[in-house]
Design brief:
The chain is mainly β. Helix content is about 10%, strand content about 40%.
Protein backbone atom coordinates (compact mmCIF):
# COMPACT_ATOMS: atom_id res chain seq x y z
CA UNK A 1 0.00 0.00 0.00
CA UNK A 2 1.49 3.36 -0.98
CA UNK A 3 2.27 6.10 1.47
CA UNK A 4 -1.00 8.06 1.84
CA UNK A 5 -1.62 11.30 0.03
CA UNK A 6 -3.54 13.52 2.41
CA UNK A 7 -4.20 17.19 2.91
CA UNK A 8 -1.44 19.13 4.58
CA UNK A 9 -2.48 20.20 8.05
CA UNK A 10 -0.99 21.45 11.27
CA UNK A 11 -2.26 22.27 14.72
CA UNK A 12 -4.25 25.45 14.60
CA UNK A 13 -5.06 25.44 10.89
CA UNK A 14 -3.91 24.68 7.36
CA UNK A 15 -0.32 25.00 6.26
CA UNK A 16 -0.51 27.65 3.59
CA UNK A 17 3.11 27.85 2.42
CA UNK A 18 4.99 24.62 3.12
CA UNK A 19 7.76 25.18 0.61
CA UNK A 20 11.05 25.62 2.41
CA UNK A 21 9.63 24.73 5.83
CA UNK A 22 10.79 21.91 8.07
CA UNK A 23 7.75 20.27 9.63
CA UNK A 24 8.18 18.49 12.92
CA UNK A 25 7.87 14.74 13.22
CA UNK A 26 4.47 13.43 14.10
CA UNK A 27 2.60 16.29 12.43
CA UNK A 28 3.79 16.24 8.86
CA UNK A 29 1.33 14.61 6.47
CA UNK A 30 0.03 12.22 9.12
CA UNK A 31 -3.56 11.14 8.40
CA UNK A 32 -6.21 11.04 11.08
CA UNK A 33 -5.99 7.82 13.12
CA UNK A 34 -9.64 6.88 12.65
CA UNK A 35 -9.38 7.38 8.90
CA UNK A 36 -6.27 5.19 8.77
CA UNK A 37 -7.91 2.45 10.84
CA UNK A 38 -11.02 2.43 8.64
CA UNK A 39 -9.00 2.31 5.44
CA UNK A 40 -6.70 -0.44 6.70
CA UNK A 41 -9.59 -2.51 7.99
CA UNK A 42 -11.24 -2.35 4.56
CA UNK A 43 -8.00 -3.25 2.80
CA UNK A 44 -7.26 -6.13 5.18
CA UNK A 45 -10.73 -7.59 4.68
CA UNK A 46 -10.46 -7.27 0.89
CA UNK A 47 -7.05 -8.93 0.74
CA UNK A 48 -8.19 -11.69 3.10
CA UNK A 49 -11.13 -12.43 0.81
CA UNK A 50 -8.85 -12.60 -2.23
CA UNK A 51 -6.44 -14.96 -0.49
CA UNK A 52 -9.28 -17.13 0.82
CA UNK A 53 -10.71 -17.46 -2.67
CA UNK A 54 -7.31 -18.43 -4.04
CA UNK A 55 -6.89 -20.97 -1.26
CA UNK A 56 -9.90 -22.90 -2.55
CA UNK A 57 -8.87 -22.68 -6.19
CA UNK A 58 -5.15 -22.66 -7.00
CA UNK A 59 -3.42 -22.86 -3.63
CA UNK A 60 -2.19 -26.36 -2.92
CA UNK A 61 1.10 -27.86 -1.80
CA UNK A 62 3.28 -28.08 -4.91
CA UNK A 63 5.02 -31.41 -5.20
CA UNK A 64 8.74 -31.40 -5.88
CA UNK A 65 9.47 -33.80 -8.72
CA UNK A 66 12.15 -34.04 -11.39
CA UNK A 67 12.40 -30.60 -13.06
CA UNK A 68 10.23 -30.29 -16.16
CA UNK A 69 10.07 -27.65 -18.89
CA UNK A 70 6.55 -26.63 -19.90
CA UNK A 71 6.02 -24.66 -23.13
CA UNK A 72 3.25 -22.12 -23.74
CA UNK A 73 2.12 -20.73 -27.12
CA UNK A 74 -1.11 -18.82 -27.61
CA UNK A 75 -1.47 -19.80 -31.29
CA UNK A 76 0.84 -22.84 -31.68
CA UNK A 77 2.79 -21.04 -34.42
CA UNK A 78 6.14 -20.24 -32.79
CA UNK A 79 6.14 -23.37 -30.63
CA UNK A 80 3.83 -25.88 -32.38
CA UNK A 81 4.54 -28.59 -29.85
CA UNK A 82 3.68 -26.43 -26.83
CA UNK A 83 1.43 -28.19 -24.37
CA UNK A 84 -0.39 -25.07 -23.14
CA UNK A 85 -2.15 -22.11 -24.74
CA UNK A 86 -2.19 -19.88 -21.64
CA UNK A 87 0.39 -19.07 -19.00
CA UNK A 88 -2.11 -19.79 -16.23
CA UNK A 89 -2.80 -23.33 -17.47
CA UNK A 90 0.93 -24.06 -17.43
CA UNK A 91 1.29 -22.63 -13.92
CA UNK A 92 -1.63 -24.76 -12.74
CA UNK A 93 0.10 -27.87 -14.12
CA UNK A 94 3.56 -27.02 -12.82
CA UNK A 95 5.36 -28.36 -9.77
CA UNK A 96 8.26 -26.97 -7.79
CA UNK A 97 11.56 -26.82 -9.69
CA UNK A 98 9.79 -26.62 -13.08
CA UNK A 99 10.46 -24.02 -15.77
CA UNK A 100 7.74 -22.48 -17.94
CA UNK A 101 8.87 -21.11 -21.32
CA UNK A 102 6.38 -18.71 -22.90
CA UNK A 103 6.63 -18.32 -26.66
CA UNK A 104 5.94 -15.13 -28.59
CA UNK A 105 2.39 -13.82 -28.49
CA UNK A 106 -0.06 -11.63 -26.60
CA UNK A 107 -1.61 -13.21 -23.54
CA UNK A 108 -4.77 -11.48 -22.31
CA UNK A 109 -4.70 -12.90 -18.82
CA UNK A 110 -3.84 -12.11 -15.25
CA UNK A 111 -1.58 -14.91 -13.97
CA UNK A 112 -1.77 -16.19 -10.38
CA UNK A 113 1.34 -17.97 -9.11
CA UNK A 114 0.45 -19.36 -5.69
CA UNK A 115 1.92 -21.95 -3.37
CA UNK A 116 5.35 -22.51 -4.95
CA UNK A 117 8.78 -22.67 -3.39
CA UNK A 118 10.66 -22.74 -6.73
CA UNK A 119 9.36 -21.94 -10.22
CA UNK A 120 10.78 -20.09 -13.24
CA UNK A 121 8.53 -18.36 -15.81
CA UNK A 122 10.52 -17.02 -18.75
CA UNK A 123 9.58 -15.28 -21.95
CA UNK A 124 11.46 -16.33 -25.05
CA UNK A 125 14.22 -13.95 -26.28
CA UNK A 126 14.07 -10.25 -27.26
CA UNK A 127 15.92 -7.39 -25.68
CA UNK A 128 14.54 -4.57 -23.57
CA UNK A 129 12.40 -2.64 -24.07
CA UNK A 130 10.84 -4.45 -27.06
CA UNK A 131 9.40 -7.77 -26.02
CA UNK A 132 7.87 -10.57 -28.06
CA UNK A 133 5.80 -11.95 -25.17
CA UNK A 134 3.12 -9.54 -23.96
CA UNK A 135 0.91 -9.97 -20.88
CA UNK A 136 -2.04 -7.65 -21.43
CA UNK A 137 -4.81 -8.30 -18.89
CA UNK A 138 -6.93 -5.24 -19.79
CA UNK A 139 -7.96 -4.25 -16.23
CA UNK A 140 -11.48 -4.97 -15.15
CA UNK A 141 -11.75 -3.77 -11.57
CA UNK A 142 -8.53 -4.93 -9.90
CA UNK A 143 -5.93 -6.90 -11.87
CA UNK A 144 -2.21 -7.58 -12.10
CA UNK A 145 -0.07 -9.02 -14.86
CA UNK A 146 1.33 -11.53 -12.36
CA UNK A 147 0.02 -12.14 -8.85
CA UNK A 148 2.69 -14.02 -6.90
CA UNK A 149 2.01 -15.50 -3.47
CA UNK A 150 5.01 -17.82 -3.38
CA UNK A 151 8.71 -18.14 -2.63
CA UNK A 152 11.48 -18.72 -5.13
CA UNK A 153 9.61 -17.57 -8.25
CA UNK A 154 11.47 -16.04 -11.21
CA UNK A 155 9.58 -13.95 -13.77
CA UNK A 156 11.82 -12.82 -16.61
CA UNK A 157 11.57 -11.13 -19.98
CA UNK A 158 7.91 -10.11 -20.28
CA UNK A 159 6.19 -6.99 -21.52
CA UNK A 160 3.37 -6.23 -19.08
CA UNK A 161 0.85 -3.49 -19.75
CA UNK A 162 -2.71 -2.28 -19.28
CA UNK A 163 -3.29 -3.49 -15.74
CA UNK A 164 -3.44 -2.08 -12.19
CA UNK A 165 -0.19 -3.74 -11.07
CA UNK A 166 2.51 -5.07 -13.36
CA UNK A 167 3.63 -7.61 -10.74
CA UNK A 168 2.09 -7.83 -7.26
CA UNK A 169 3.81 -10.21 -4.87
CA UNK A 170 4.29 -11.47 -1.34
CA UNK A 171 6.97 -13.99 -0.42
CA UNK A 172 10.73 -14.44 -0.23
CA UNK A 173 13.61 -15.23 -2.58
CA UNK A 174 11.69 -14.20 -5.69
CA UNK A 175 13.35 -12.54 -8.68
CA UNK A 176 11.73 -10.24 -11.23
CA UNK A 177 14.11 -9.21 -13.99
CA UNK A 178 14.36 -7.93 -17.55
CA UNK A 179 10.67 -7.05 -17.78
CA UNK A 180 9.21 -4.06 -19.61
CA UNK A 181 6.27 -2.72 -17.57
CA UNK A 182 4.28 0.27 -18.80
CA UNK A 183 0.87 1.93 -18.96
CA UNK A 184 -0.16 0.82 -15.50
CA UNK A 185 -3.29 2.48 -14.14
CA UNK A 186 -5.32 2.66 -10.93
CA UNK A 187 -8.99 2.90 -10.11
CA UNK A 188 -10.42 5.52 -7.77
CA UNK A 189 -8.61 4.85 -4.48
CA UNK A 190 -4.99 5.52 -3.54
CA UNK A 191 -4.29 1.92 -2.51
CA UNK A 192 -5.66 0.08 -5.53
CA UNK A 193 -3.04 0.10 -8.22
CA UNK A 194 -1.03 2.28 -10.52
CA UNK A 195 2.20 0.49 -9.44
CA UNK A 196 4.75 -1.22 -11.69
CA UNK A 197 6.05 -3.81 -9.19
CA UNK A 198 4.46 -4.00 -5.75
CA UNK A 199 5.35 -5.96 -2.64
CA UNK A 200 2.60 -5.67 -0.05
CA UNK A 201 3.10 -8.11 2.79
CA UNK A 202 0.32 -8.40 5.34
CA UNK A 203 2.70 -8.80 8.30
CA UNK A 204 6.20 -8.25 6.96
CA UNK A 205 8.62 -11.08 6.34
CA UNK A 206 8.93 -10.92 2.55
CA UNK A 207 12.69 -11.13 2.40
CA UNK A 208 15.64 -11.42 -0.01
CA UNK A 209 13.70 -10.67 -3.19
CA UNK A 210 15.45 -9.21 -6.24
CA UNK A 211 13.98 -6.63 -8.62
CA UNK A 212 16.59 -5.97 -11.25
CA UNK A 213 17.13 -4.81 -14.83
CA UNK A 214 13.51 -3.86 -15.48
CA UNK A 215 12.27 -0.94 -17.56
CA UNK A 216 9.24 0.68 -15.90
CA UNK A 217 7.59 3.71 -17.44
CA UNK A 218 4.33 5.63 -17.75
CA UNK A 219 2.96 4.44 -14.43
CA UNK A 220 0.00 6.27 -12.94
CA UNK A 221 1.47 6.30 -9.42
CA UNK A 222 4.65 4.50 -8.26
CA UNK A 223 7.31 2.57 -10.16
CA UNK A 224 8.43 0.10 -7.46
CA UNK A 225 6.76 -0.18 -4.05
CA UNK A 226 7.96 -2.41 -1.19
CA UNK A 227 5.48 -2.16 1.66
CA UNK A 228 3.78 -3.82 4.59
CA UNK A 229 0.17 -3.46 5.68
CA UNK A 230 0.94 -0.70 8.15
CA UNK A 231 -1.33 0.08 11.09
CA UNK A 232 -0.76 2.00 14.31
CA UNK A 233 1.30 -0.24 16.59
CA UNK A 234 2.18 -2.75 13.86
CA UNK A 235 5.53 -4.55 13.76
CA UNK A 236 5.92 -5.77 10.18
CA UNK A 237 9.28 -5.38 8.42
CA UNK A 238 10.82 -6.75 5.22
CA UNK A 239 14.52 -7.67 5.15
CA UNK A 240 17.30 -7.94 2.61
CA UNK A 241 15.47 -7.04 -0.60
CA UNK A 242 17.36 -5.73 -3.65
CA UNK A 243 16.22 -3.08 -6.16
CA UNK A 244 19.09 -2.65 -8.59
CA UNK A 245 19.75 -1.54 -12.17
CA UNK A 246 16.18 -0.59 -13.08
CA UNK A 247 15.22 2.25 -15.43
CA UNK A 248 12.11 4.05 -14.22
CA UNK A 249 10.41 7.12 -15.67
CA UNK A 250 7.02 8.82 -15.67
CA UNK A 251 5.89 8.01 -12.09
CA UNK A 252 3.91 10.93 -10.57
CA UNK A 253 3.95 9.48 -7.02
CA UNK A 254 7.64 8.61 -7.06
CA UNK A 255 9.99 6.12 -8.69
CA UNK A 256 10.90 3.86 -5.73
CA UNK A 257 9.08 3.82 -2.40
CA UNK A 258 10.06 1.53 0.48
CA UNK A 259 8.27 1.28 3.82
CA UNK A 260 9.44 -0.58 6.93
CA UNK A 261 12.63 -2.18 5.67
CA UNK A 262 16.07 -3.25 6.84
CA UNK A 263 19.18 -4.33 4.93
CA UNK A 264 17.56 -3.33 1.64
CA UNK A 265 19.76 -2.38 -1.32
CA UNK A 266 18.58 0.31 -3.77
CA UNK A 267 21.54 0.73 -6.10
CA UNK A 268 22.42 1.78 -9.63
CA UNK A 269 18.91 2.69 -10.75
CA UNK A 270 18.19 5.34 -13.40
CA UNK A 271 15.20 7.40 -12.28
CA UNK A 272 13.80 10.21 -14.41
CA UNK A 273 10.60 12.28 -14.40
CA UNK A 274 10.04 10.77 -10.99
CA UNK A 275 7.20 12.88 -9.58
CA UNK A 276 7.22 13.28 -5.80
CA UNK A 277 10.60 11.65 -5.21
CA UNK A 278 13.29 9.52 -6.74
CA UNK A 279 13.76 7.22 -3.74
CA UNK A 280 11.79 7.36 -0.50
CA UNK A 281 12.58 5.26 2.56
CA UNK A 282 9.62 5.69 4.89
CA UNK A 283 8.77 4.29 8.29
CA UNK A 284 5.10 4.05 9.15
CA UNK A 285 4.92 1.98 12.35
CA UNK A 286 5.87 3.05 15.84
CA UNK A 287 7.63 -0.17 16.83
CA UNK A 288 9.82 -0.36 13.71
CA UNK A 289 13.27 0.99 12.90
CA UNK A 290 13.92 1.15 9.16
CA UNK A 291 17.66 0.69 9.40
CA UNK A 292 20.82 -0.47 7.65
CA UNK A 293 19.48 0.17 4.16
CA UNK A 294 21.70 1.29 1.28
CA UNK A 295 20.81 3.81 -1.43
CA UNK A 296 23.85 4.19 -3.66
CA UNK A 297 25.02 4.97 -7.20
CA UNK A 298 21.55 5.99 -8.37
CA UNK A 299 20.90 8.62 -11.03
CA UNK A 300 17.87 10.79 -10.17
CA UNK A 301 16.63 13.64 -12.36
CA UNK A 302 13.62 15.88 -12.92
CA UNK A 303 11.41 15.10 -9.92
CA UNK A 304 8.67 17.71 -10.07
CA UNK A 305 5.65 16.38 -8.19
CA UNK A 306 4.08 17.84 -5.06
CA UNK A 307 6.96 16.84 -2.78
CA UNK A 308 9.99 17.38 -4.99
CA UNK A 309 12.72 15.37 -3.19
CA UNK A 310 15.54 13.37 -4.78
CA UNK A 311 16.21 11.01 -1.84
CA UNK A 312 13.93 11.10 1.20
CA UNK A 313 14.44 9.26 4.49
CA UNK A 314 11.37 9.93 6.62
CA UNK A 315 10.51 8.33 9.96
CA UNK A 316 6.85 9.28 9.94
CA UNK A 317 6.46 6.95 12.92
CA UNK A 318 9.09 4.84 14.65
CA UNK A 319 12.63 5.57 13.47
CA UNK A 320 14.97 5.43 10.47
CA UNK A 321 18.58 4.97 11.53
CA UNK A 322 21.98 3.76 10.27
CA UNK A 323 21.05 4.05 6.60
CA UNK A 324 23.79 4.75 4.05
CA UNK A 325 23.09 7.23 1.23
CA UNK A 326 26.11 7.59 -1.02
CA UNK A 327 27.40 8.18 -4.56
CA UNK A 328 24.01 9.29 -5.91
CA UNK A 329 23.77 11.81 -8.75
CA UNK A 330 20.75 14.10 -8.31
CA UNK A 331 19.70 17.02 -10.49
CA UNK A 332 16.78 19.31 -11.29
CA UNK A 333 14.49 18.63 -8.34
CA UNK A 334 11.64 21.18 -8.44
CA UNK A 335 8.48 20.31 -6.49
CA UNK A 336 5.32 22.23 -5.73
CA UNK A 337 5.86 22.02 -1.95
CA UNK A 338 9.61 21.43 -1.67
CA UNK A 339 12.69 21.23 -3.85
CA UNK A 340 15.30 19.25 -1.91
CA UNK A 341 18.05 17.00 -3.24
CA UNK A 342 18.47 14.85 -0.11
CA UNK A 343 16.21 15.20 2.92
CA UNK A 344 16.85 13.19 6.08
CA UNK A 345 14.09 13.00 8.69
CA UNK A 346 15.71 10.19 10.67
CA UNK A 347 18.68 9.82 13.00
CA UNK A 348 22.28 8.61 12.80
CA UNK A 349 22.35 8.09 9.04
CA UNK A 350 25.39 8.57 6.81
CA UNK A 351 25.28 10.74 3.71
CA UNK A 352 28.44 10.93 1.61
CA UNK A 353 29.89 11.31 -1.90
CA UNK A 354 26.59 12.49 -3.38
CA UNK A 355 26.23 15.14 -6.08
CA UNK A 356 23.22 17.47 -6.14
CA UNK A 357 22.86 20.22 -8.73
CA UNK A 358 20.23 22.49 -10.29
CA UNK A 359 18.18 22.08 -7.11
CA UNK A 360 17.36 25.05 -4.82
CA UNK A 361 17.87 23.14 -1.53
CA UNK A 362 20.61 20.57 -1.95
CA UNK A 363 20.54 18.98 1.52
CA UNK A 364 18.25 19.21 4.50
CA UNK A 365 18.91 17.51 7.84
CA UNK A 366 15.84 17.33 10.09
CA UNK A 367 17.16 14.57 12.35
CA UNK A 368 19.80 13.99 15.00
CA UNK A 369 23.32 12.64 14.68
CA UNK A 370 23.36 12.36 10.89
CA UNK A 371 26.81 12.55 9.32
CA UNK A 372 27.44 14.05 5.88
CA UNK A 373 30.82 14.35 4.20
CA UNK A 374 32.45 14.69 0.78
CA UNK A 375 29.19 15.66 -0.92
CA UNK A 376 28.98 18.12 -3.80
CA UNK A 377 26.18 20.63 -3.25
CA UNK A 378 26.11 22.71 -6.46
Amino acid sequence: MPFPRVTLSAEGGAMTSPKGSQPSKGKFLKPEREEVKKVNKAITVAIALIMTALAFTTISPRASADPTILYVDDDSVQCPNAGYATIQSAVDAANNLDTIIVCAGTYSESVSVVGFSSLAIRAEGSALPQKSVVVNPQPQGFTSGFYVLSDGVRIEGFEIKNTNFGIWFEGSNNKFSNNYIHDITSTIYWWDGGVGISLWDMNGGSNYNMITNNVIQDIERTGILLDVAWTDGGTGINTGNTVNNNKISGTPWGAIEILNAEYTSVNQNELEACGDWGIALLNAEQAIDSSSNSMAHNSIAHCSGSWGVGVLVYAWAGSATSNDIHHNSIEDIQGAWFDVGIWIMGDYNTIHHNSVKETPSQYRDSGTGNVDFKNSWN
